[in-house]
UniProtKB/TrEMBL annotation:
InterPro entries: RNaseH-like_sf, ZnF_BED_domain_contain. It comes from Vicia faba (Broad bean). The lineage of its organism: Eukaryota, Viridiplantae, Streptophyta, Embryophyta, Tracheophyta. Residues 23-64 are annotated as: Disordered. This is Zinc finger BED domain-containing protein RICESLEEPER 2-like. Residues 36-46, 53-63 have a biased composition (Basic and acidic residues). Residues 23-33 have a biased composition (Polar residues).
Length: 247
């Protein structure tokens, strides 16, 4: 609506209040209290919701996350009356998102014949559960560095045989056969795993240096071991207590 007539408003005058009262802009119909999302908006909300759960710190995040400040902000900017899904729906959506992202990443490796560098780590949680993660680092055709988690899984033990099976199965799943190098912690189990993978990659005949320099030990892990061993010395306790008292 466009108003072409200019009006001089005088604060506090009866004419001003009368003019506002009779203005067509002040007479509006009752608007609905809720706004329905169209299909495109609903799909966008679903995608944002899946990513929010996938990026959450709590791997068991579900509709109980409604009390989380990040989730509350998400709801406020999308649709305050958006129905919170249940645990089964979220689990199904997360698996669907994982499959979609895995397919995209596998397409990159297969179409570009991409070489990757790998890092892997294994640890035991406070619940005495063994975990392992495998991460790929690579440079794309636009010379941009990428880091992608290929696998985050449970393992029965930290034995080298178990670790190498998980790595080999993951590489085959993504159709990756060009690896250089693999960075691991300084552990005997990792030595066993990488030694077998080196032998396996010789059969693939795709390693740039025929398996040389495939095994790289993490410098940060070695430095951490050195520092911790040094701090365990008895004569260090006195120095540490002095430093802590100052801090």
């Amino acid at each position: 609506m466009t108003i072409n007539k200019e009006v001089n408003y005088v604060a506090g005058s009866d004419a001003s209040f009368s003019m506002v009262e009779n203005s067509p802009l002040t007479h509006t119909t009752n608007l609905p209290q809720t706004i329905d999302l169209d299909k495109q908006e609903g799909d966008n909300v679903q995608k944002k919701k899946k990513r929010k759960v996938g990026e959450a710190d709590d791997p068991k995040a579900d509709d109980s996350n409604a009390g989380d400040s990040g989730f509350c902000h998400f709801m406020s900017v999308t649709q305050p009356r958006f129905p919170l899904p249940g645990r089964v729906s979220i689990a199904r959506d997360c698996l669907s998102l994982y499959a979609s992202e895995k397919h995209k990443l596998r397409s990159i490796f297969t179409k570009t014949n991409q070489s990757v560098c790998l890092t892997t780590d294994a640890w035991t949680s406070v619940q005495n559960i063994n975990y392992m993660v495998l991460t790929a680092h690579f440079i794309d055709q636009d010379w941009k560095l990428h880091k992608r988690i290929l696998n985050f899984c449970l393992i029965t033990s930290h034995k080298g045989e178990i670790i190498r099976r998980k790595i080999e199965k993951c590489l085959e799943g993504y159709m990756i056969d060009k690896v250089f190098p693999i960075t691991v912690d300084n552990a005997v189990s990792n030595d066993v795993a990488i030694a077998y993978l080196k032998y396996k990659m010789e059969d693939w005949n795709s390693h740039p240096l025929k398996g040389e320099n495939l095994h790289i030990i993490c410098c940060s892990h070695i430095l951490n071991l050195v520092v911790n061993d040094r701090l365990k010395l008895k004569h260090m306790h006195f120095s540490l207590s002095k430093i802590r008292s100052v801090v």
